[in-house]
Structures are given as structure tokens and as C-alpha cells.
Specification:
258 residues; alpha/beta; four-stranded parallel beta sheet; binds nicotinamide-adenine-dinucleotide
Length: 258
């Protein structure tokens, strides 16, 4: 089951899992792209995909889609909490935007896990993956909501793995830097933050990211870093936070001029 799978990274993940022989449940706000993708998959292999249009910013919506998949296919082997938004900028960001960012980028992961765990504990097996971001390890210049929610998503994945890892749960967390999707090219207030991402390193294709994810899941690796330089930035941050903040300020100056 992959959320945010109508487009971008989620679509590439779902397609890669499908190519590996999995049945995939696709969830997204965007109905038409979702149905088109499920249609292609079912044409290639009958009854191998289902499309579940939903807005996952409430607990009820998360419960509803998980129940729908369980009803049709008995259980979910792997859940990928990937849907997310790049919303909000600085301290002037309105409360509605903050709440929406927290709901989809973080609480949706918790709501899904809350509903998945009892079954997974019972059978002693389950795989929870989430998409945080390099911003969850480092920071997102230009967006406080993105930085906080992605730090939260990574922290939640770590907590899940610590808490349930001895009882059969596997957890992985994907933390990419720039990926060539609509999110990176959106032209709203977040746009300058996206320019920082583009300036910070290589922009990968979603299919490259999906290939790395399939391999990491095969190896049951917790942290998935399709951009290897992110591991180096995280090490530099851990070694000397003051110096790392200085470097981030210089990068911000280049793009924002302050
Ligand atoms: N593109 C990047 O550079 C990049 C880098 C790091 C992390 N990420 C993360 O990767 C994930 C996927 O993003 P993407 O780059 O593919 O962007 P995208 O905008 O192409 O795809 C995100 C998908 O999530 C869906 N979605 C958004 N809100 C939803 C909601 N409330 N309910 C259901 N679906 C919803 C959207 O409709 C969209 O199809 C996100 O969590 C994002 O934060 C992206």
C-alpha cells in the first residue's frame, strides 16, 4: 500500500513494487491519475492494483483506506506513508497551513501505524516505510513547517523501529534530497526553498529513488539515502552543529540574499 502514489516518488515506488510482482493499493487525493495508474497495472496483470482516492489528513480517512485493503486482500504486508506536501515558509505561515503540513507529513504516519500495528503484532510480521526527507536529518532552508514535520517523520520511524523491532516489525525511512517531481518545481512561496534543494546537489529521477528503495527493503535497511552526500552532511552536522549552521546560512544567503 503506497500513499501519494498518483504522481512523483509514490508513483515510481508503486510501479517498482508492482514490477517486483506485488499487488499494490494506491492512495492519493488525485483521483484521475490514480485510476489511470491502477488501470495500466491491471491491464498488465489482472487484479494486481486498486485505486483508493482519499484525503489522508484525518485519522478516519487513514482507517478507511486501510480497512478497504484488508477487506479485499486480507492484510497489508508493506505500508508506505509517502504522501506529503511542501507547504509553508517562515513564522508568518498561517495556522491552517501548519496544521495541514503536520496532518499529512507526520500524523498520517502515526494514524496508519496505529491501525496497522495490532494485526502486524498478532502475525509477528509487517513492514512500515515512510518518506521523510533529507530535511528530516538536516533542515529545509525557507520552510519551518517542512523542517519540523520531516524531522518528526524520521523520529517517528525510529521510535517505531525501536519499539516494535523485536516483535517482527521492519521499518525503513526514505530521506531523499532533490527529486524531479511536481513538488520540486512548484512555483508558490515554497519555490525559493526548492531552489535551495536544487543548488544543494543532484536532482534524481523518481525511478532512481524507487530502485534504491527496493534494494534497501530487500536488505531491511532503516535509513534510505538515495543521495549519498546526505550521509556526509548529516555526519558534519553531528560533528559540529555550529559550523554546520554557518554553512547553511551561507547557502541561504546565496539563494535568498539574507
Ligand atoms: N521531490 C523532492 O525533492 C522530495 C525530496 C525529499 C522528500 N520528498 C517527499 O517525497 C514525498 C513524495 O513527494 P513527491 O516529490 O513525489 O511530490 P508530488 O507532489 O509529486 O507527490 C505527492 C503526492 O502526494 C499526494 N498528496 C498530497 N497531500 C495528500 C493528502 N492529503 N492525501 C492524499 N494524498 C496526498 C499528492 O496528490 C501527490 O500525488 C513527500 O512526502 C515529499 O515531502 C520529496
Amino acid at each position: 500500500m503506497v500513499t501519494g502514489s498518483a504522481r512523483g516518488i509514490g508513483r515510481a515506488l508503486a510501479s517498482a513494487f508492482h514490477a517486483e510482482g506485488a499487488r499494490v493499493a494506491l492512495v492519493d487525493l488525485d483521483q484521475s491519475d490514480l485510476h489511470t495508474l491502477a488501470g495500466h497495472m491491471n491491464a498488465a496483470r489482472p487484479e494486481s492494483a486498486m485505486a483508493l482516492p482519499a484525503d489522508l489528513t484525518t485519522e478516519a480517512a487513514n482507517v478507511e483506506v486501510i480497512d478497504a485493503v484488508r477487506h479485499a486482500w486480507e492484510d497489508i504486508d508493506l505500508f508506505f506513508a509517502n504522501a506529503g506536501i511542501a507547504a509553508g515558509t517562515d513564522l508568518t505561515t498561517d495556522e491552517e497551513t501548519w496544521n495541514k503540513a503536520f496532518a499529512i507529513n507526520l500524523h498520517a504516519h502515526r494514524w496508519a501505524a496505529k491501525h496497522l500495528m495490532p494485526h502486524w503484532l498478532e502475525r509477528g510480521d509487517g513492514y512500515f516505510c515512510s518518506t521523510a526527507s533529507a530535511a528530516g536529518l538536516l533542515s529545509q532552508i525557507g520552510s519551518a513547517p517542512y523542517t519540523l514535520t520531516k524531522h518528526g517523520a524520521l523520529a517517528f520511524a525510529e521510535w517505531l523501529s525501536i519499539t516494535y523491532g523485536n516483535r517482527g516489525l521492519k521499518v525503513s525511512c526514505l530521506c531523499p534530497q532533490g527529486v524531479n517531481t511536481d513538488m520540486l518545481h512548484q512555483a508558490d512561496d515554497f519555490g525559493r526553498g526548492a531552489n535551495v534543494v536544487k543548488a544543494a546537489g543532484a536532482v534524481l529521477e523518481p525511478e532512481d529513488v524507487a530502485r534504491e528503495v527496493v534494494q534497501a527493503i530487500d536488505e531491511e535497511r532503516f535509513l534510505i539515502l538515495p543521495h549519498p552526500e546526505v550521509a556526509e552532511y548529516a555526519k558534519a552536522k553531528a560533528n559540529d552543529r555550529g559550523r554546520w549552521i554557518g554553512g547553511m546560512r551561507r547557502l541561504q544567503m546565496k539563494v535568498y540574499g539574507y
